[in-house]
Amino acid sequence: MDYRVFLILLPSLFIIAECDVKQKPDKATDKKATKQTAVGVSTKSITKKPKQEPIKRQSKAKPSTSSVQRQAAASILSQVLQRGKFQQAGDTVTVKAGQTLDLRCKGTSVRWNYPHYLHEDDEGRLKIKHFGRYSQLILVNTTTADTGEFSCGGFQCTGDRCHDGEEKMAKTYVFVTDPQELFVPTEDYYVIVQLRTRQPALLPCQVTDPLAKVTLHQEFPPEQIPVDGVKIAYDLKKGFIIYQPHPSLAGSLFCIAELGNLRQMSTKYMLIYVNYPSAPPKPSVEASKSTARAGENFIVTCTVLGELEISVEFTWEYPGQQIGRPPYVRESTAQTRRGGQLMQESQSVLAIDEARAVDDGTYTCTAQNLQGSTSVTTRVSILPATATARGRNQG
Prior knowledge:
The protein has helices at about 5-25, 25-40, 45-60, 65-75, 385-395; strands at about 75-80, 85-90, 90-95, 100-105, 110-115, 125-130, 135-140, 150-155, 170-175, 190-195, 200-205, 215-220, 225, 230-235, 240, 250-260, 260-265, 270-275, 285, 290-295, 300-305, 315, 330-340, 340-350, 360-370, 370-385. By secondary structure, it is α+β, with helices and mostly antiparallel strands. Mean pLDDT is about 80; it is low at about 5-10 and about 10-75.
């Protein structure tokens, strides 16, 4: 090459080399540049990172044992939609009246539960078939009366050996819909329901369609009863639950279901308010004399302190019953205040006139209310009469 051309190109070569050095920084410079770039990122993009991290950790975390068991249990029950097409049975399943309900439950050994009246099915509509790894429940010509809970329990067995701990359970609530029937039919025109103090009461206004709107009504006076979810709540699978029974609800009640242009009334429920005790009675018994002479009189008193307006029944067992001595019993009820609280005192007094030797023994008082009964005992000893008493009796 001509040295004059070389001298002309030399400055250009130096410029290219300098640019190349600037484009290849060392590692320290590269890290610094990365940090600077991060500083330049907007606040919005920075706030995304903490949100993404916990989601990433949750995806890697192992699910709890209970959730795994629920998923495993739910997966063993499926519904056959048509030949070769299945879907997992969810919390509810809906079929039209007249169609076939076909459920399959995975397991080597399977047991089924279904609405009670189907256990006495005389028409042969219900069939259960067991296969090697699953069991099949088929209900043909379904009716609205078939609405209810269906469940199964499956064991994973090896050979002839099965363990209780390996059983998986699954259930679903089946609605059998009918455009002309909104309530599950019942044979009773009136159903008597007890409203018990401090105990929930159920009005089973069960519907055949989960989309139906259900309201609660009183017959006399005719009015709709408000349902607030606290005192009274509605459960789609059970009906109306009265959590706080009150005497004002006693009487004739019924439900009304509405769907589209259809409006129907349920069977009537006759509610009877019962002041129900919270526990069985706790009686105490005491004799006026633990030792009495023959010919003397004494009494045995049985007392129950409890809630107001709670009926208590008393029964006695006493030694004189052996010879047929009639009982002389006096019962009473009164209000009393104990520890600043108003309570009801119920008493039963057994009177023994002119005691005899046969009256010696154990006296048992049993007090009973709607929650149960309790018995208490005391003993009375009968001594021979004194000489003065014998002479007075002889005279």
